[in-house]
Known about the structure:
Largest sheet: none
Distance between the termini: 29 Å
CATH topology of the domain at 66-119 and 170-310: MetI-like fold
Number of strands: 0
Helix content: 55-70%
Shape: globular
Structural class: mainly alpha
CATH class of the domain at 66-119 and 170-310: Mainly Alpha
Strand content: under 5%
CATH architecture of the domain at 66-119 and 170-310: Orthogonal Bundle
Amino acid sequence: MVDSKQQWKAWLYLAPAIVLLLIFTVWPIINTVVLAFTEKYSTLANTGGTSFRIGFGNFTDVVGYSGFLDALKITMILCVATVPISTILALLIAVALNAIKPLRKALQTIFFLPYVTNSIAIGMVFNAMFNMIGKIGIRRPKIQSFGIINDIIRFFGGTEINWINTGSDEWANILVLIIYIVWNALPFKILVLLGGLQSINKQYYDAAKVDAAPRWKVLTRITVPLLSPMIAYVVITGFIGGFKEYTSIVGIFGETMGPPHDAGRLNTIVGMIYDSLENNLVGRASAAALILFGIILIVTLINLQVSKKRVHY
């Protein structure tokens, strides 16, 4: 405890961080709530001295927007598909890394690299991998490239697939996004689960060896229950990140949020918020942000409720 006579020093040290927190976090949240209930608000109108009504008009505009249900559908699909897959893969990789002692640190570094790499840059790499139309070489610029992924498919006797170009199907676009999001989410989850694995008491595994328990039973009866707090954490944070998905779509498809022939096909709720801001519909963007916050809050509360029955501390 800090002596009551010396508390002013502690507040003095904390003052810069508190001021920055108030300016860049607390005030934007308060302002977003205010603007969400300010109907038809726009920056230009506010500059001109226009008065605005307080009500729920912005929320009805968001719900009544033609692309809202499609954006919600894409957001839900990406969350439901990517969170379980990435969590299971991260658990298996973490267990494997924990069993490999000589190269553990080197492999940890390799698996963690995507986490510190710019998401847009990674998306551009995925775009090049799945892009069917490309020009290779300098002297022969007219040669067509089917993309690395399609080259692999053709190598094994398959037929190339139009993943992200004009005329592609929505399922192909979503599959590319799922692969990217899962790959991009693995590093953080592996790091968290690996840290949890290394904190498990080795006596449990020694007892399993004495009983000659098979590996799958050790995984399901020892590792998963003792690792359940970490698993619950990565699942909850995974859903929160999934509902805020935006940069992955921009990285692969650009600002059109979809293939060239169908712009906006893969738009998410966050993308809808950015579209509203670009069109100077600040009130609608604020209302959409609050709706997204409400959805994330409900999903998080459901996860916490389920965790109470499944998590063993």
